[in-house]
Amino acid sequence: MTEVSLNIIQAFIGFGSGITVGAGFVAFITVLKIIPRLIQLSKTASFLKIYTASIISGLLFGTFLTFFDGSWQEPVILLVFLGLLHGIFNGLLAAALTEILNVIPILLKRVRVDGFLLWLLMAIMFGKIIGSLFQWLYFVTV
């Protein structure tokens, strides 16, 4: 088998895998109605075009970064800002997912601790903060 045909097969497999993962991601967001629920909770339906443009440009930029083989010398303040945006997106996505699936109320009823919702939310929040700090301080800066 020649190197060219091997590269063509690898490109075909990579493209097919990308289509599969992308379809799964779109199905996940569509079936669970995460984006519409985020819009409903934040009462920002007037920004629908901005949401659409942000999602598409973010996915395209993420795809570009996946294939980009280089490094940038960004200022630290830009990295902090981008990290903040990334954290906000992941937090909103997780919050919308738990809101849609009613995970927290079901968990509280199963464990029979209905009166401790605030404590559970605070534990989740501080756990995320401590875990993120640990990951950054231990794995990234070392």
Mean pLDDT over the full residue set? 80
Cα shape: extended
Mind telling me the C-alpha Rg? 20 Å
Oligomeric composition of the shown chains: single chain
Query: What portion of residues belong to β-strands?
Result: under 5%
Helix proportion of residues, in percent? Answer: over 70%
Number of strands: 0
Q: Structural class of the secondary elements?
A: mainly alpha
- N-to-C SSE string, H for helix and E for strand: HHHHHH
Biggest sheet, in brief? none
| Low-confidence runs of at least 5 consecutive residues | none
> How many helical stretches?
6
Query: Distance between termini?
Result: 44 Å
Brief characterization of the structure:
The chain is mainly alpha-helical and 142 residues long.
Can you walk through the features of this model?
The protein has 142 residues and is mostly helical. Helix content is 83%, strand content 0%. Helix 2 (34-42) packs across helix 4 (76-101). The termini are far apart.
Blueprint (SSEs and pairs):
Layout lengths: L2 H30 L1 H9 L5 H20 L8 H26 L1 H9 L5 H24 L2
Which labels suit this protein?
142 residues, mainly alpha, 6 helices, 83% helix, 0% strand, extended
